[in-house]
């Protein structure tokens, strides 16, 4: 046991990025006088409480593990191999045969007596851990790039759209005119065409993260067939507004159909398409920002925000105001820049997913 000091920092559950094995804050920035298990550089911390959360850490410094941790060390095998071993499916299976329902904990009796195969050659142990540590480093770097792009996109959405002054904080060189205020109904037409069997039935739903996506993909199962004749027919580039609010999206979400050439959505959504006076890319990015929230708030029925669905009539929705650049060229530049950020983000996300799949495959194949 030990007590944390400025020179002997503590590590707690909340300090660890689950499944990644990195810290989300500087250990020495935390408070002191916390009691826990003393650990040394090279020791492995394994969170035994709710082991499915995957709170593990390879210690690169001396400190105190506060909370439900095992501190694992060995004089017989490479410490890096120990860290790799606890992530392998076989170990995870045993560790998750936990006791307790509300606060399950790994059973040391089971884990400590579970038999496993270990390379007798120390260099092979180190080679295995070196490969997996390399993947961890690459994953961490791509995670950080992903977070940087998220912060960049958030900053651009705040700065590149005009506020109540009529001027954005950041804009492209050569543009200085005040943006004009218009109503959504001036730059977009409502979509009211019903399905009526005109399209093979591809029912869509709106995901705040993924946009307009098929219900089968969103719910990760086959959605039972039903009568879709009353659904609205959308074509590529059309928009739909989901009036339901969720955590982080208090005013619902507005998304453009991009993944499919066409599809159908519930008539509970409000659907529309931009006309020639506005760039579709600009509009899509505008609705990724929070600029439209105040207008929606004005027309949402009192009390509706407390019941999960914003009771907004289509007439009020199309009467909401938005500020847009006078020149189409400025709209296009804004849309292209933000689309480029989105594309780069997608590439990093795909690379990150690939690296995680590679690591998972190696954890399955490199251990017996």
Describe the model.
This protein has 368 residues and is of the alpha+beta class. The chain has three domains: 2-117, DNA methylase specificity domains (Adenine-n6-DNA-methyltransferase TaqI, Chain A, domain 2, Alpha-Beta Complex); 119-177 and 325-368, Orthogonal Bundle (Helix Hairpins), CATH 1.10.287; 180-321, Alpha-Beta Complex (Adenine-n6-DNA-methyltransferase TaqI, Chain A, domain 2), CATH 3.90.220.20. It is built from ten helices and 19 strands. It has a four-stranded mixed sheet with strand order 1-5-8-2, with no helix packed on it. A hairpin with an 8-residue loop joins strand 6 (44-47) and strand 7 (56-58). The radius of gyration is 27 Å and the shape is elongated. The relative contact order is 0.11.
Describe the secondary-structure layout.
Blueprint (H helix, E strand, L loop, with lengths): L1 E2 L6 E2 L4 E2 L4 E2 L11 E5 L4 E4 L8 E3 L4 E3 L3 E4 L6 H7 L3 H7 L12 H6 L8 H38 L20 E4 H4 E3 L13 E4 L3 E4 H5 L12 E4 L3 E4 L10 E4 L5 E4 L4 E5 L5 H7 L6 H7 L14 H5 L2 E4 L3 H38 L3
Parallel strand pairs: 2-8
Antiparallel strand pairs: 1-5, 3-4, 5-8, 6-7, 6-9, 10-19, 11-18, 12-13, 14-17, 15-16, 15-18
Helix pairs in contact: 1-4, 4-10, 7-10
Ranges with pLDDT <50 over ≥5 residues?
none
> Would you tell me the structural class of the helices and strands?
alpha+beta
**Strand order across the biggest sheet?**
1-5-8-2
- Total count of domains: 3
Our Rg estimate from Cα atoms comes to: 27 Å
Distinct helical segment count: 10
List keywords for this structure.
Helix Hairpins, 3 domains, 368 residues, alpha+beta, Adenine-n6-DNA-methyltransferase TaqI, Chain A, domain 2
């Amino acid at each position: 046991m030990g007590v944390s000091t400025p020179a002997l920092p503590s590590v707690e559950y909340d300090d660890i990025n689950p499944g990644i094995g990195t810290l989300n804050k500087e250990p020495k920035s935390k408070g002191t006088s916390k009691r826990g298990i003393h650990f040394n550089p090279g020791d492995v911390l394994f969170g035994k409480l709710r082991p499915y959360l995957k709170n593990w850490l390879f210690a690169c410094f001396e400190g105190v593990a506060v909370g439900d941790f095992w501190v694992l060390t060995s004089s017989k095998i490479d410490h890096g191999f120990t860290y790799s071993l606890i992530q392998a499916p076989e170990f995870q299976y045993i560790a998750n045969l936990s006791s307790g329902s509300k606060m399950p904990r790994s059973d040391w009796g089971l884990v400590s007596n579970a038999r496993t195969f270990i390379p007798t050659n120390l260099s092979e142990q180190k080679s295995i851990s070196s490969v997996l540590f390399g993947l961890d480093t690459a994953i961490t770097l791509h995670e950080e790039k992903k977070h940087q792009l998220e912060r960049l996109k958030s900053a651009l959405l705040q700065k590149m759209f005009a506020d109540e002054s009529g001027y954005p904080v950041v804009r492209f060189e050569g543009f200085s005119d005040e943006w004009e205020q218009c109503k959504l109904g001036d730059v977009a037409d409502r979509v009211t065409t019903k399905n009526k069997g005109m399209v093979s039935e591809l029912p869509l739903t709106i995901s705040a993260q993924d946009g307009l996506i098929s219900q089968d993909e969103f719910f990760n199962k086959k959605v039972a067939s039903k009568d879709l004749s009353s659904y609205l027919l959308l074509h590529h580039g059309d928009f739909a507004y989901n009036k339901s609010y969720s955590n982080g999206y208090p005013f619902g979400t507005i998304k453009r159909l991009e993944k499919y050439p066409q599809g159908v959505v519930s008539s509970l959504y409000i659907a529309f398409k931009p006309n020639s006076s506005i760039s579709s890319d600009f509009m899509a990015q505008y609705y990724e920002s929070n600029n439209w929230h105040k207008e929606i708030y004005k027309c949402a029925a009192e009390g509706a925000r407390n019941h999960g669905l914003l009771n907004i009539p289509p007439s009020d929705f199309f009467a909401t105001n938005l500020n847009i650049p006078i020149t189409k060229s400025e709209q296009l530049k804004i849309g292209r820049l933000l689309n480029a950020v989105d594309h780069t983000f997608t590439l990093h996300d795909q690379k990150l997913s690939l690296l995680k799949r590679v690591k998972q495959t190696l954890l399955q194949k490199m251990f017996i």
